[in-house]
């Protein structure tokens, strides 16, 4: 295994294509992170069935992970920290599977809560303060926040406390029931799939 | 890293209290310690040569550096022989993501104020011994404590750092030249301070009103809001009991804390003595 | 004005006048050897370690005999600046511990710290791939625990910060070692300490990306002849290459030991 640091010259740019963790400058490819050098040949078969010849890609897999930052298409987990009639503000705590060291701010606008009947959505009937939600990043948003969406079935509230302070379980895509008082509260639930289950 | 550890990390981030509770049910703590186990503590004396006395203290990952510099000033009108001892704690944004640049945060102010109160109420150093010339010149000892890594229980580290740095202080031989109104000092530093007692602290956190966590880390401190600090001296006398935040604690807990604090005193005293010995050999 | 947020001492205090022995310290002996046994072109031995601050994303500690500097890197994290930016934002802050210099420094930020922060920012910015980090900020905080020569301190701080950034896993073009030199009586003293620095007529601090052979920052002060400057630049780039290998070792050793 070959360990490298930023700035290590890896190879000629004519031999390989620069993948993640590397960059090309003049006729060479250099590493841009601390990690292990890896190379692979992408196998992309075109729709005509012919194997298209691809050049080899060289990458450096990060040995030290950078604190994760959200990007469009990422799945995030976060906590609802503020609500208005038009949007819910979410503190993004986990991107993909990697927790962020510092929280980022995201917004779920009312039109992004669910896929159908967007005009009838009421934020208060979808989320409450303190709920843990799973959502998708749909744009880098404005200067302050990322825009998030829970329109897909698998996104929405994954953990919530009822008014009585007990945990709630989802009973349909828009209802959750308190485990203690059996009271039903409105939420936009994520399709149940236990986040912390070990049998995945 | 495997996905398993990622999941644990995710769980910790989203449900910190639940995460800690799961560990405590099995009588261990997230870093593998027992409930009443302190983290490894090291003391390094005289590490900064621009000071009159210095000490670097590490408790687990928590690291603080205390440096003491002596300057000369005029004593107060009311107490013409008394010198000054000025402790300040600095929690820079470097040591934790919680702190922002700028003037001392409330947290830092509380730490400084508590340490100042400890110095005064436990009369660790007789300020009259800092006199150079009565009514005209006294020593001012600036004790600045810089936190390098904030991983919980910083107060303990600060107090140990301050006390050991004070015992490391060497002052030059100084004379007051009356006609010029100046203090002249020798280049070599020789005179140690005369400390009347050497108190060391022990800090505890109470989680869920029942688990007594000794020497909490940053993760534990952020979810267990009840903190008890007990400072005792070489005779086992208690100098300070300090309890902040949260709900009440039972007398039984308090008694247990005090007995652990006394054991901890012996442990720290041994560490410091070892370091002093090896320091003198060099 | 009294600062209520700190414990206050007396209003005025001064360092005592030190009675020094009258003989002047000789910087060089007859064999052109310096006080601590090194030659004119030698730098002090360096101790460099990463990962000291567990709370930070990346950190490093550097020790050049007496000089001691710690650096913590936080980020990339959400930027506090209100305007949208497709590029990351770099923020550098350097702080002298109050006890780090022969004279006590007041605890609040002074103009020298602001100047040094700006210099470090300029030296590091070309090396970091900020275009990959939209809407984010990288904060670099540096504390000088002991200062033994300001120019060499600045150079060591740049070296240390660059390693800490790499330790944080942030993508960069190259590591940036930095080195300083002093001009004293028409001679070049590499990596001068505080006593040598007091006698200098000028100094040079150079930051260099050895792999790309590019200079990111150069700062010359004082009055020097042109050919002496070009000689100093050459010597500094040579020393930077030596420091570079120490930086690489400090980053790779912890990983190799883990496996």
From TrEMBL, chain A:
GO MF term list:
RNA binding
Keyword annotations from UniProtKB, A to Z: Cytoplasm, Exosome
- Single GO cellular component annotation? nuclear exosome (RNase complex)
One biological process GO term for this chain? RNA processing
**What's the main place this protein lives?**
nucleus
Pfam family, any one:
ECR1_N
InterPro entries assigned: Csl4 (IPR039771), EXOSC1_C (IPR019495), Exosome_cplx_N_dom (IPR025721), NA-bd_OB-fold (IPR012340), S1_domain (IPR003029)
| Signal peptide segment | none
The answer to whether UniProt assigns keyword Cytoplasm to this entry is yes
Known PROSITE patterns for this protein? S1
Q: Entry's Gene3D superfamilies? A: 2.40.50.100, Nucleic acid-binding proteins
**Domain S1 motif residues, every copy:** 73-152
Q: In its keyword annotation, does this UniProt entry include Manganese?
A: no
Q: Where in the cell is it found?
A: Nucleus, Nucleolus
What protein name is recorded for this chain?
Answer: S1 motif domain-containing protein
Q: Which organism is it from?
A: Diversispora epigaea
TrEMBL record, chain B:
Pfam families reported in the protein's UniProt record: RNase_PH, RNase_PH_C
Which keywords annotate this record? Cytoplasm, Exosome, Nucleus, RNA-binding, rRNA processing
A GO molecular function annotation here is:
mRNA 3'-UTR AU-rich region binding
Where does this polypeptide localize? Cytoplasm; Nucleus, Nucleolus
**Its GO biological process terms?**
exonucleolytic trimming to generate mature 3'-end of 5.8S rRNA from tricistronic rRNA transcript (SSU-rRNA, 5.8S rRNA, LSU-rRNA); nuclear mRNA surveillance; nuclear polyadenylation-dependent rRNA catabolic process; rRNA catabolic process; TRAMP-dependent tRNA surveillance pathway; U1 snRNA 3'-end processing; U4 snRNA 3'-end processing; U5 snRNA 3'-end processing
Q: Where is the Exoribonuclease phosphorolytic domain?
A: 37-172, 201-263
Signal peptide residue numbers: none
Instruction: Give the record's GO CC terms.
Output: cytoplasmic exosome (RNase complex); nuclear exosome (RNase complex); nucleolus
Family, per entry: Belongs to the RNase PH family.
Mind telling me what this protein is named? Ribosomal RNA-processing protein 43
What organism does the record attribute this protein to? Diversispora epigaea
From TrEMBL, chain C:
Tell me where on the tree of life, at the top rank, the source sits.
Answer: Eukaryota
Listed under GO cellular component are:
cytoplasmic exosome (RNase complex); nuclear exosome (RNase complex); nucleolus
- Main subcellular location: cytoplasm
Q: What is this protein called?
A: Uncharacterized protein
Q: Which organism does this record belong to?
A: Diversispora epigaea
Gene Ontology biological process: nuclear mRNA surveillance; poly(A)-dependent snoRNA 3'-end processing; rRNA catabolic process; rRNA processing; U4 snRNA 3'-end processing
Q: Which family does it belong to?
A: Belongs to the RNase PH family.
Domain Exoribonuclease phosphorolytic: start-end pairs: 43-171, 175-236
What keywords tag this UniProt record?
Answer: Cytoplasm, Exosome, Nucleus, RNA-binding, rRNA processing
- Per its UniProt record, what InterPro entries does this chain match? ExoRNase_PH_dom1, ExoRNase_PH_dom2, ExoRNase_PH_dom2_sf, PNPase/RNase_PH_dom_sf, Ribosomal_Su5_D2-typ_SF, RNase_PH
Task: Show the GO MF annotations.
Answer: RNA binding
* The keyword rRNA processing belongs to this UniProt entry's keyword annotation: yes
Pfam families for the chain? RNase_PH, RNase_PH_C
Q: Cellular location of this protein?
A: Cytoplasm; Nucleus
């Amino acid at each position: 295994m070959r360990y490298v640091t930023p700035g290590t010259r890896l190879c000629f740019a004519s031999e390989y294509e620069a993948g993640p963790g590397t960059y090309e400058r003049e006729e060479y490819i250099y590493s841009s992170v601390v990690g292990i050098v890896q190379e692979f040949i992408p196998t992309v078969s075109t729709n005509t069935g012919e194997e298209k010849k691809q050049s080899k890609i060289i990458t450096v897999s990060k040995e030290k992970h950078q604190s994760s930052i959200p990007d469009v298409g990422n799945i995030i987990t976060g906590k609802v920290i503020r609500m208005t009639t038009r949007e819910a503000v979410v503190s993004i705590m986990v991107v993909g599977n990697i927790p962020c060291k510092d929280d980022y701010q995201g917004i779920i606008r009312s039109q992004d809560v669910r896929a159908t009947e967007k005009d009838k959505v009421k934020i208060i009937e979808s989320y409450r303060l303190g709920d843990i939600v799973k959502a998708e990043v749909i744009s880098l948003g404005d200067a302050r926040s990322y825009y998030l969406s829970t329109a897909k079935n698998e996104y929405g509230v994954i953990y919530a406390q009822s008014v009585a302070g007990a945990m709630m379980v989802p009973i349909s895509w828009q209802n959750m029931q308190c485990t203690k008082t059996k009271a039903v509260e409105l939420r936009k639930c994520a399709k149940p799939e236990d986040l912390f289950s070990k049998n995945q | 890293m495997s996905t398993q550890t990622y999941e644990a990390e995710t769980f910790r981030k989203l449900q910190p209290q639940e995460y800690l509770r799961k560990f405590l049910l099995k009588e261990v703590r997230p870093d593998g310690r027992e409930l009443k186990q302190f983290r490894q503590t090291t003391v390094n004396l005289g590490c900064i040569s621009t000071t009159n006395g210095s000490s670097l203290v590490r408790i687990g990952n928590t690291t603080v550096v205390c440096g003491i510099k002596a300057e000369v000033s005029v004593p107060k009108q009311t107490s013409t022989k008394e010198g000054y001892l000025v402790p300040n704690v600095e929690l820079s944004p470097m040591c934790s993501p919680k702190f922002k640049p700028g003037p001392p945060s409330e947290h830092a102010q509380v730490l400084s104020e508590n340490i100042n109160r400890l110095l005064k109420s436990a009369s660790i150093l007789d300020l009259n011994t800092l006199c150079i010339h009565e009514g005209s010149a006294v020593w001012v000892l600036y004790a600045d404590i810089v936190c390098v890594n904030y991983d919980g229980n910083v107060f303990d580290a600060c107090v140990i750092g301050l006390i050991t740095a004070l015992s490391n202080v060497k002052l030059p031989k100084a004379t007051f030249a009356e006609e010029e109104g100046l203090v002249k000092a020798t280049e070599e530093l020789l005179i140690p301070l005369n400390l009347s007692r050497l108190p060391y602290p022990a800090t505890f956190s109470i989680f869920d009103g029942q688990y007594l966590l000794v020497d909490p880390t940053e993760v534990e401190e952020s979810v267990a809001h009840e903190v008890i600090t007990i400072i005792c001296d070489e005779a086992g006398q208690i100098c300070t009991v300090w309890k902040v935040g949260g709900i009440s604690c039972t007398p039984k807990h308090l008694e247990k804390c005090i007995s652990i604090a006394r054991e901890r005193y012996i442990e720290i005293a041994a560490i410091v003595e070892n370091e002093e010995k090896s320091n003198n050999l060099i | 004005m009294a600062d209520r947020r700190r414990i206050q001492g007396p209003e005025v205090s001064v360092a005592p006048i030190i009675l020094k022995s009258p003989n002047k310290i000789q910087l060089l002996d007859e064999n052109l050897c310096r006080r601590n046994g090194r030659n004119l072109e030698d730098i002090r031995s360096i101790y460099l370690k990463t990962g000291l601050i567990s709370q930070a994303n990346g950190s490093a500690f550097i020790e050049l005999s007496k000089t001691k500097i710690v650096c913590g890197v936080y980020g990339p994290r959400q930027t506090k600046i209100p305007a949208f930016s497709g590029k990351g934002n770099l923020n550098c802050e350097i702080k002298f511990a109050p006890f780090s210099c022969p004279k006590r420094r007041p605890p609040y930020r002074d103009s020298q710290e602001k100047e040094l922060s700006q210099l470090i920012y300029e030296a590091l910015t070309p090396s970091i791939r900020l275009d990959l980090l939209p809407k984010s900020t990288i904060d670099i905080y540096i504390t000088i625990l002991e200062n033994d020569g300001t120019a060499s301190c600045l150079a060591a701080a740049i070296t240390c910060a660059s390693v800490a950034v790499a330790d944080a896993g942030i993508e960069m073009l190259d590591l940036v070692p930095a080195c300083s030199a002093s001009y004293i009586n028409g001679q070049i003293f590499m990596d001068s300490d505080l006593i040598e620095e007091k006698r200098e007529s000028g100094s040079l601090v150079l930051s260099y990306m050895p792999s790309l052979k590019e200079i990111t920052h150069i700062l010359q002060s004082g009055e020097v002849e042109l050919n002496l400057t070009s000689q100093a630049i050459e010597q500094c780039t040579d020393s930077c290459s030596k420091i570079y290998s120490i930086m690489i070792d400090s980053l790779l050793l912890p990983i190799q030991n883990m496996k």
